[in-house]
């Protein structure tokens, strides 16, 4: 595995989990622990932060990543607060959309439709939730299942809210994601939902990823962190988009 690809995988894993052991990363990526340590030092230099070691084999989340991680939890908490009793919602694949789960109100009866393995597993023990799942071909890098049958399944359902992720938001070139296989299921979810809510941290604005799945004006609501610039907030509101900063 090339060094850049390996370090990207480490970076994404740390962003998702908040902390990780060197041993676990070495096993996951099939390299030596010394290689992982070198990669972590490279990542620290890139992000201009100092590591915090809690033991000989464990690194806490780099300071910059920890801040980003907490932003996502705040976004998830706000999203969960928008869910009303007896609503049907769709939750998209994504590290930010998954942060809804810890904040779901157990006193509310909710129907949740998803196509992500992580979200499904987290919700299986919640007796207050009615679960609907789209199957198909599994993509381990995102935890997403997709197939023509899952698109048909989505089109047969209706939701009050669709909580979606994105890796890029561009004023003229639309809302984008990294993988082309994500676009059809995202589009079907938008079409099947009364309200389309994007959950994205401020680093995604002005970014363009390879696969476009909608135009910016199609978005109803955006939940993001309070680092989003006033210029971007103004642009979004001028397009009729409700913006929540947390």
UniProtKB/TrEMBL annotation:
Domain of life: Bacteria
Source organism phylogeny: Bacteria, Bacillati, Bacillota, Bacilli, Lactobacillales
All copies of domain HTH deoR-type, residue ranges: 3-74
InterPro entries listed in its UniProt record: Carb_Metab_HTH_regulators, DeoR-like_C, DeoR_HTH, NagB/RpiA_transferase-like, Tscrpt_reg_HTH_DeoR_CS, WH-like_DNA-bd_sf, WH_DNA-bd_sf
The protein's name: DeoR/GlpR transcriptional regulator
PROSITE patterns: HTH_DEOR_1, HTH_DEOR_2
Entries under Pfam families matching the protein: DeoRC, HTH_DeoR
Keyword Transcription regulation on entry: yes
UniProt organism field: Vagococcus allomyrinae
GO molecular function terms attached to this record: DNA binding; DNA-binding transcription factor activity
């Amino acid at each position: 595995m090339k060094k850049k690809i390996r370090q990207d995988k480490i970076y994404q894993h740390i962003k998702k989990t908040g902390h990780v052991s060197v041993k676990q990363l070495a096993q996951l990526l099939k390299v030596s622990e010394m290689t992982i340590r070198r990669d972590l030092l490279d990542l620290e230099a890139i992000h201009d932060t100092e590591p915090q070691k809690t033991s000989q084999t464990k690194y806490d989340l780099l300071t910059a990543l920890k801040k980003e991680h907490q932003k996502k939890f705040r976004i998830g908490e706000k999203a969960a607060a928008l869910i009303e009793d007896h609503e049907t919602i769709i939750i998209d694949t994504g590290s930010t959309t998954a942060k809804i789960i810890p904040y779901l109100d157990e006193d509310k009866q909710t129907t949740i439709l998803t196509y992500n393995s992580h979200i499904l597993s987290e919700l299986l023990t919640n007796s207050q939730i009615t679960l609907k799942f789209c199957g198909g071909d599994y993509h381990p890098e995102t935890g997403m299942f997709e197939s023509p049958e899952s698109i048909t399944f989505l089109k047969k359902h209706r939701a009050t809210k669709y909580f979606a992720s994105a890796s890029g938001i561009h004023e003229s070139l639309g809302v984008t994601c990294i993988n082309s296989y994500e676009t059809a299921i995202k589009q079907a979810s938008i079409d099947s939902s009364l309200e389309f809510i994007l959950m994205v941290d401020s680093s995604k604005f002005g970014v363009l990823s390879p696969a476009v799945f909608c135009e910016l004006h199609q978005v109803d609501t955006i939940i993001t962190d309070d680092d989003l610039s006033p210029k971007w907030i103004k642009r979004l509101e001028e397009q009729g988009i409700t913006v929540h900063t947390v």
